[in-house]
Specification:
Elements: H1 8-18, E1 27-29, H2 31-35, H3 46-50, E2 54-63, H4 70-85, E3 87-95, H5 99-108, E4 115-118, H6 120-128, H7 139-142, H8 144-149, H9 152-156, E5 159-160, E6 163-164, E7 166-168, E8 175-182, H10 183-189, H11 203-213, E9 232-233, E10 242-245, E11 253-255, H12 260-274, E12 294-298, H13 303-312, E13 316-326, H14 328-331, E14 335-338, H15 345-357, H16 359-366, E15 374-376, E16 382-384, H17 412-422, E17 424-425, H18 439-457, H19 463-476, H20 479-494
Parallel strand pairs: 2-3, 2-4, 13-17
Antiparallel strand pairs: 1-2, 4-14, 5-6, 7-14, 8-12, 8-13, 9-10, 10-11, 15-16
Helix pairs in contact: 15-16, 18-19
């Protein structure tokens, strides 16, 4: 992908277009004044930033709410960012439970902000609303550090009609699935978990565990064993039942429930449910229990030591399941967008570049305030003083410039980066289905699947009965038109 350098006159024209609905959260002022501000006035222009004055930007993101030490933290952040790039930041950290509602209000009502976090669930819809700045032609000039750090194909993953509206956070940006086993169970039964990666291969072992342990070897909630769909790129359709298999050179759009691998897995899930291997209340549970003899999780191998085991309170062993896959969906799991109404799009990108690539700045966002939430050790690692920091690290920037925590024996970020570099790119990387002509039909088809999903994915329903029934309802709702429209666009994308 070639990024064009933008002339000053072109930027000025883009800025004029970007101020259609008023001003963003940015304004100009002093570094000291910004730390205590609760938002900016609408004064200030791009030329103010160019003249060396401090530009104020507002970033809306998700977490556990505003940090208790926000005022002292942001003062230090702004002193550093002000000196580095002439930017001060104001944060709004929205609690998890309030996120969807609050975020929708901000975007739909043109409430002032400069940068906002999002993901694939809202990225396309917000672009269609005209909420975000087209940053394609500004990235190379304003984000040189991130351009060097992040491979080009990750930019491809956020393209919509060959344009870029979001900055992906380069982290575990590909999917790697791991079977997570209770080590005590593996040792007791001498299990060769490397031979138990196909879902159909697990039945005999689970039957034994069910009989011996009088417990459910597969304890899931209402989304069931969802990883069976991960090999299908959803092409922006937003539903598990439509996709293109990641490694399909023919790029065939398919009804995934009828595909042999998915259908066989659904048969196995139903068999498990009938045999009592799956907990009987799975289809109605919104939260699963903490302990699992076995489950599949997305992550990296050392997460067994740093996360999955400690969360469960047990030692675990893990086994990779399938390829590591890079797709639009995996890249779009964490994005930051620039408001169409910002006065300072270049400064927004410069700030995100700094957060992604400058380790001192990255640590301040990831760990919190130095001396309050964390401190550096003599050997240059980060020691967490407490777990009070309220911001969500995955939303902010790259993992690969975060200082290693002192409790880790090895750097898990290196492991994640290696997985990303070895990832198999989906055949559909860079393609997004334009659903405009079939939006109503697709919405109706999504709703049909959602009515069945929990019982199908937890094995309650027999796929021999459920899949034909689902397809019949889908066809009446216009499913064939959706499939045909998707295939036509996919064929054009791959050059058929």
């Amino acid at each position: 992908m070639k990024f064009k350098k933008v002339l000053a006159t072109g930027i000025a024209a883009a800025m004029t277009m970007g101020m259609l609905a008023g001003c963003g959260g940015g304004d100009s002022g002093s570094a000291a004044g910004t730390a205590a501000s609760g938002g900016g006035s609408e004064a200030g222009t791009e030329s103010a930033a160019d003249s060396g004055e401090i530009v104020n930007l507002k970033w809306v993101t998700i977490g556990n709410g505003m940090p208790t030490n926000y005022d002292t933290w942001v003062e230090k952040v702004n002193a550093y960012a002000g000196e580095k790039i002439g930017v001060n930041i104001e944060m709004e950290v929205i609690p998890w439970g309030d996120w969807d509602k609050r975020r929708n209000i901000i975007v739909s009502t043109n409430e002032p902000f400069d940068i906002i976090f999002g993901n694939g669930n809202n990225y396309i819809a917000d672009i269609n609303l005209g909420a975000y700045y087209d940053i394609t032609d500004m990235i190379a000039d304003n984000m040189p550090g991130l351009m060097e750090l992040m491979p080009e194909k990750y930019w491809d993953g956020v393209k919509v009609k060959d344009r870029i509206y979001g900055v992906p956070t380069y982290k575990d940006s590909s999917i790697s699935n791991y079977a997570v086993w209770d080590k005590e169970i593996v040792d007791e039964y001498g299990l060769d978990i490397a031979s138990l990666t196909e879902i159909e291969s697990l039945t005999e072992t689970f039957e034994t565990l069910k009989a011996d342990k009088n417990d459910y070897p597969v304890y899931v909630k209402n989304d069931g064993v969802y990883y069976i769909f991960d090999v299908y790129d959803q092409i922006g359709a937003g539903t598990q039942i439509l996709g293109v298999r990641y490694d399909d050179e023919d790029a065939r759009v398919c009804f995934t429930l009828e595909e042999p691998d998915v259908y066989s897995a659904l048969e196995t899930l139903h068999d498990w449910y009938e045999k009592g291997i799956i907990n009987p209340d799975a289809s109605t549970l919104s939260e699963a229990r903490v302990y699992n003899m076995w489950r599949v999780a997305q992550g990296w191998e050392s997460a067994g030591i740093t996360s999955w085991g400690p969360q469960m309170g047990k030692d675990v062993v893990v086994q990779k399941v399938g390829d590591t896959i890079l797709s639009n969906e995996t890249v779009r799991g964490s994005l930051n967008m620039v408001s169409i109404n910002t006065k300072y799009p270049e400064k927004c990108l410069q700030f995100l570049d700094l957060v992604n690539t400058d380790t001192k700045m990255r640590d301040m966002f990831y760990y919190g305030e130095e001396g309050v939430n964390f401190e550096y050790t003599a050997d240059g690692k980060a020691h967490k003083i407490n777990n009070d920091w309220a911001m969500a690290g995955y939303t902010q920037g790259s993992f690969f410039t975060v200082t290693q925590v002192d409790t880790d024996e090895y750097n898990q970020w290196d492991e994640i980066k290696a997985l990303n570099e070895a990832a198999v790119s989906s055949r559909m990387l860079g393609f997004t289905f334009d659903t405009t002509e079939v939006s109503d039909k697709l919405a109706n088809c999504r709703e049909i699947w959602l009515r069945y999903r929990s019982e199908v994915m937890t094995g309650v329903q027999d796929p021999a009965v459920a899949v034909p029934q689902i397809k019949e309802e889908l066809m009446k709702a216009g499913w064939q038109d959706v499939m045909d429209a998707a295939q036509k666009q996919v064929d054009e994308f791959v050059g058929k």
